[in-house]
Amino acid sequence: MTVVVGCGAGFSGDRTDAARPLVDALMSYDAPRALMFETLGERTLAAAQLRRIKDPDSGDEPLLEEFLSPVLSDCLVNHITVLGNFGAANPNAACRRIQQLAKRLGHSQASLATVQGDDVRDRLHELDWLAWEGEKRALSTIEQVVAANVYLGADALIEAMAQGAQVVITGRVADPSLALAPICYHHDWASDDWDRRAAGALAGHLIECGTQVTGGYFADPGVKDVPGMASLGYPLVEVERNGRLIVTKPPGTGGLVTEQTVKEQLLYEIHDPSAYITPDVVIDLEHIRIKQLAKDRVEVTGVRGKPSPARLKTTVSFLAGYQGEAEISYAGPNAFARAHLARETLRQRLALRCPIDLRARYDLIGASSVFDGDTQQHPQNRDAASDIRLRLAVEHSDKRVVELATQELLALYCCGPAGGGGVRRHHTQRLKTASYLVPRQQVVPTVTLRKGEGHE
Q1: 152 in helix, strand or coil?
Q2: Residue 128 burial class via C-beta count within 10 angstroms: exposed 0-12, middle 13-18, buried 19 and up
Q3: Which segments of the chain have a pLDDT < 50?
């Protein structure tokens, strides 16, 4: 038997029309099928928590209805399980919205389940915290915690499916777990069948970022050409009971699936190929084999697994002062020299008017930004630079200092140099994250099944 899983989103803000071709393709399979949506980054979740603090009925994925409206009815009718972390900071709110959507689409008795237990913001003082690899900050030193969420695994999602859920709504779970859950459920893999669990988790890892594996992020004109970028097909993965998997995409869509696209995504976020840690299994990629079977069909075999970790990764997000950005453009003859003068003038003005602990960065976009350090020592082709945008980025604990710094860039309109225009300014509270590990046994996920609008 084969289980087929598609991924309709790789992040919050992804294309909202992507799932339609996926569901059309899923309906053509005579096999168990599922559709996952991965919409939750670390700062995305913190921002959702801030929204929930302001409005208790908010905090879920803003584009939830745009993602689901085109396909939810077909998924319910054709027994395609939908799994998504679009619950973000408020799975109950997401569940209510999906119930209302299902009712409007004529499915008032749809079975939905929420998975919770990842939010440990109210348990900071009772958990056994261990700093994650590379984390220098002690949790006790962090103030203004906005969010603290544990990366849950697939087991609670499997339980939700076993209870009959047609739609499974989560907060923070590990991205691959959204695919591993339906794969484990339909194949009935044992919880300690590490090699097969590793194959299922790898299937999720390969599709979790949407079109990264079908050519989107892969594309580099003249080096790695990708057809049909405006109509990229989002990925499908076919997983057999023995753990063999095939990555593909819906027919007639743009993009491509090749050994190269699969290898690039395979290595995404992998720090140790022999021990890629997920909540469900530690994946060993050292013996993996990747083979092109046909156009847009790539086989992956040889993955092995090791027992799941004793501790689970937890992301703590906290407020840390304010940040601001401001930009102004210089174009035409001598643009680089004028932009350079503007940068040095701005640097001097901030030294005169702002506290010494203001953190500031100055980029000449079009001449130097990504490849330039804070000291702006990267060599530049000044003669070729005729369209430059000066960008100022600042950080400080006092919002008024940040506003003052960006106002100094605004003043360049008349204070020169000549020809500056197109100023934009933006200020916001600074969100930072820190990573820790907590014992698995201290985190107990809960599953709540709801059948029909307003019923449990």
Answers
A1: strand
A2: exposed
A3: 370-371, 379, 454-456
Which of 428, 424, 392, 403 lies closest to 353 in space, CA to CA?
A: 403
Sign (positive or negative) of CA dihedral 400, 366, 340, 421: negative
Supply the pLDDT for residue 38.
98
Is-contact 222 52, C-beta < 8 A?
Answer: no
CA atoms within 13 A on the CB side of 301: 8
DSSP assignment of 386-424, as one string? -EEEEEEEEEES-HHHHHHHHHHHHTHHHHSSTT-EEEE
pLDDT at residue 386, as a whole number:
81
Strand partners, 388: 330
For residue 125, give both structure tokens. Answer: 């003082």
What is the per-residue pLDDT for 390?
95
Q: How far apart are CA 347 and CA 341, in angstroms?
A: 10
22 vs 8: CA distance, rounded Å = 7
Q: What is the pLDDT of residue 43?
A: 84
Q: Point out which residues pair with 247 in neighbouring strands.
A: 237, 298
Are 34 and 179 spatial neighbours (Cβ–Cβ below 8 Å)?
Answer: yes
Tell me what pLDDT residue 58 has.
96
Q: Looking at beta carbons, which pairs linking 424-429 to residues 24 or more positions away fall under 8 Å?
A: 424/325, 424/326, 424/327, 425/324, 425/325, 425/326, 426/324, 426/325, 426/326, 427/322, 427/323, 427/324, 427/399, 427/402, 427/403, 428/322, 428/323, 428/324, 429/319, 429/321, 429/322, 429/323
Closest CA to 75 of 153, 168, 203, 181: 168
Q: Please list, in sequence order, all residues whose beta carbon lies within 8 angstroms of the beta carbon of residue 379, skipping any fewer than 6 positions away.
A: none
The tens digit of pLDDT for each residue in 145-201 reads 999 999 999 999 999 999 999 999 999 999 999 999 999 999 999 999 999 999 999
- For residue 167, give the 3-state DSSP assignment: strand
Question: Where is 133: in which H helix or E strand?
Answer: none
Backbone angles phi, psi at 53, to 5 degrees: -60, -40
Q: Which amino acid is at 416?
A: G
Q: What is the pLDDT of residue 456?
A: 44
Nearest 5 degrees, angle CA 294-CA 243-CA 303?
Answer: 90
- Residue 408 CB neighbour total at 10 angstroms: 21
Residue in the block written with tokens 């083979």: 291
Contacts of 5 (CB under 8 A, 6+ apart): 33, 34, 35, 36, 179, 182, 183, 203, 204, 207, 236, 237, 239
What pLDDT is stored for residue 133 in this prediction?
86
The residues pairing with 116 across neighbouring beta strands, listed in sequence order, are 446
Q: Can you give the pLDDT at residue 134?
A: 84
